[in-house]
Amino acid sequence: MGAAPLRIEDRQWRCRAMIGVGGIGTGRCFALEGNHTLGREESRAGSMLDRRDYCKLHIISHYVQTLLGPAFTTLPIGHVGDDDEGRALVDEMAAAGLDARHVRVLPGVPTLFSFCFVYPDRTGGNLTTADSAASRVDAELVNAAESDFAAHAGRGVALAVPEVPLAARAALLDLGTRHNFYRVAAFTTGEMAEASARRMPDDADLVAMNLEEASAMARLSANDGAPGAQVRLAIERIAAAHPRLALSVTAGRNGSWVRDGASLQHLPALTVPVESTAGAGDAHVAGLIAGVAAGLSLAEAHHLAVLVAALSVTSPHTIHPALGRPALRALARGRGLPLPDSVGRLLEDPS
C-alpha cells in the first residue's frame, strides 16, 4: 500500500455525491439468553445492552461520507419525528459531514425505532416500527431533491434502501436513471415479491442482499443446499431474470459474493473479534459504494467492502465510531491482506 494516494479531486473518481432514501432512526439492543432461534410464542429472558443502534440509510451514508471525505457530498432523504431522538440524529448526521437538508422533521409522528435482539453467539435480528416518520416518506419528498440530482448528473450514486415505502425508493431510482447516476437498491425478504413484480431491480445497477433476501428473490426455499451453493444458485436464477444487474450477496461467516456481468467473485469473511454483527451488511454496502464512487471496479470494491464489514463488527454499535481509512489500513496491514493496488491507494488517501 505504498503507492501514491488517489485523491477525490482526481478525474479517476467516478462520483462526487450520493443521494439516498431509506430509514433514519434509532433503537435499543437486547441480549437474549440461549442461542436457539426465538419461537413465535416463546418468552425469553435477557438484558438491555449499552449499544447505539441506527437505521440503514444513516449507517450507509455515514460510512460512505467517512470513507470518501469532505470533498464528497452525501445527501440523505427522509423524515424524523419532532422528538429528542429525531433531533439528535440530525445533529449526528451533520457532525459526520452529511448534508441533511432533505431530512425533514415531521410533527406528531415518532422517529423510526428499531429493536435489535442479539443471541449469545453475537448473531441477531431487528424489529422495526411500521408507523414511524420514516413510513411517511413519499415520492414528493424524494422529487424535491431533483435539483441536487441535476447538479451531480453523471457523477452520483442513487441509493434506495429499506425502512421507507417502496414508492419512495422507486422515485429515487427513477431520478437516478434520469440523471445518469449509479443506482444501488436493497429490499427486505418480505418486500422481494412486490419489488420483483414491479420490476424495481431493473431500475438498479446493483442490488445488495443477504442470503435470505437473495433466496427470496430467486424463489428458493431456505434449505436448498449449503450456503455457498445456495448463493450461487440464487445468483444464477436472478441473473437469468435480470442479466444486466450486478449483485452483492453476504452470508455472514461464509463470506460474500459479487457478480458484475458474467464474473462471480467470492471473498471469505475476515476473522475478527466480534462484538455485534448488527449493521455488518450495511457496512458492506457502504464499502461497495465508496469503492465504486472512487473509480474501482465492483470486484475491487468488494475487497474494500469486506474490510469495512469486518471492522464494523468489532464495535458494539451499528455505526463504528472509529471506522475510517486509517483503521482500515491498520486492519489490512495487521492481517497482511493482499489488496488490489487501487484499494491500497484509496486507503492511503489523506484527504
Give a description of the structure.
Helix 1 packs across helix 9, helix 9 packs antiparallel against helix 10 and helix 11 crosses helix 12. The N terminus is likely disordered. The longest helix has 15 residues. The protein has 351 residues and is an alpha/beta fold. It has a single domain, classed as Ribokinase (UDP-N-acetylmuramoyl-L-alanine:D-glutamate ligase), CATH 3.40.1190.20. It is built from twelve helices and 13 strands. The strands form two sheets. Strands 5-4-1-8-9-10-11-12-13 form a nine-stranded mixed sheet, sandwiched between helices. 36% of the residues lie in helices and 22% in strands.
What's the CATH first level? Answer: Alpha Beta
* Strand elements, count: 13
**Structural class, from helix and strand content?**
alpha/beta
The residue ranges in which pLDDT falls below 50 over 5 or more consecutive positions are 1-11
Secondary-structure element sequence? EEEHEHEEEHHEHEHEHHEEEHHHH
| Approximate strand percentage | 15-25%
Oligomer: single chain
Q: Can you identify the CATH superfamily?
A: Ribokinase
For the sheet with most strands, the description reads: 9 strands, mixed
* Number of helical elements: 12
Mean pLDDT: 91
Please state the second-level CATH architecture.
3-Layer(aba) Sandwich
* Count of domain modules: 1
Instruction: State the end-to-end CA separation.
Output: 16 Å
Strand order of the largest sheet: 5-4-1-8-9-10-11-12-13
Silhouette: globular
Q: Rg to the nearest angstrom? A: 19 Å
